Fold this sequence. Notes:
By secondary structure, the chain is α+β, with helices and mostly antiparallel strands. It has helices spanning 23-34, 77-89, 99-105, 158-169, 227-239, 303-316, 325-328; strands spanning 11-20, 37-42, 45-49, 57-61, 66-74, 95-96, 111-113, 120-124, 150-154, 172-181, 184-192, 200-205, 219-223, 244-251, 257-262, 268-273, 287-289, 292-295. The chain contains 7 helices and 18 strands. Helix 1 packs across helix 5 (227-239).
Amino acid sequence: MNATDSVFGAVHLGYLVIETNRFADWRRFGTEAIGMHRDDLDSGTMRFRLDDQECRFLLRRGPAEDVVATGWHLDGHTTFERIEARIRAHGVPVVEGTAEDAALRGVERLLRFPGPKGITQEIYTTPVKSAEPLRMLASGFVTGDSGMGHVAVTSTKPAQLRGYFNTVFDARLTDYIDETISGVKLKIRFLRVNERHHSIAIAAVRGLPIDPIRTRVQHLNIQAATLDDVAQSYQRVCELGFDMALSVGQHTNDKELSYYARTPSGFEWEVGWNPIVIDESTWEPTTHQGISIWGHTPVGQTIIDKLDQFRLGALSLARPENTVPALSGAGGRTPSPYEWN
């Protein structure tokens, strides 16, 4: 592929779709704990805003209790058409979202196609901006050219997932982290699609094809505008009785200072501040030992929780992980449009 065909730098994490039946808990979590702007559309849909984009998180009623779709904001129609052509050239089905789909997500038009772990990938070029002033407890969040944050997943096939995001978005490897958690050795790959240190993180158990996480997404991240916003939201999460997964700490690789709360759906929500911005002219991938320089200690984890993770890991041995082989460099069958939503 010519360097001029690359879409790197023109792709930004734009929104996430979460399916849940725990609307009351999510209202409190998103609005009162994290401090985002909330819009209740009807009894089955709710949105959170971080900035002037009409939707950053769309919550819809359903049993998954998980992230079910990821929306990627593309800089223009040329990038949009280039990515669409790549997906079609690999024989993967592409479906245009309905007018209702687009309106709910606050975009003018979107295309949908299957993604790893059953998370539908969606692309769009033009977000709808809201004229309504933000009503937030937080002073603001960092979005812009870096996108709205990142998503982290666990995988039994990390090379195929890396291949998928390289094929679709020309993702670049930023670095690795080797970490041991509860006696389990993990290798984490961090992929970037723009100046943000990573928009996708992929964690795998070293030497074992198991996945100890129930949800498709292990955590998602948003970037607070100030250190005070991180501290105040941390306090609100605790005071409102939501579970804290990891206390405040600082990461070894992107230097972001953050904490991890547990969402009403079970996956984790990281609120961070001040990660480094990648300089493409000088950056070289390296491997870091451990995820944190300091902090990020587990909060309230019991031996029962650890045993539960091993149980989930054992169950994953019998549950095939969909990596969309046609886009991951592995070849093989592509799921039909009826197998993803």
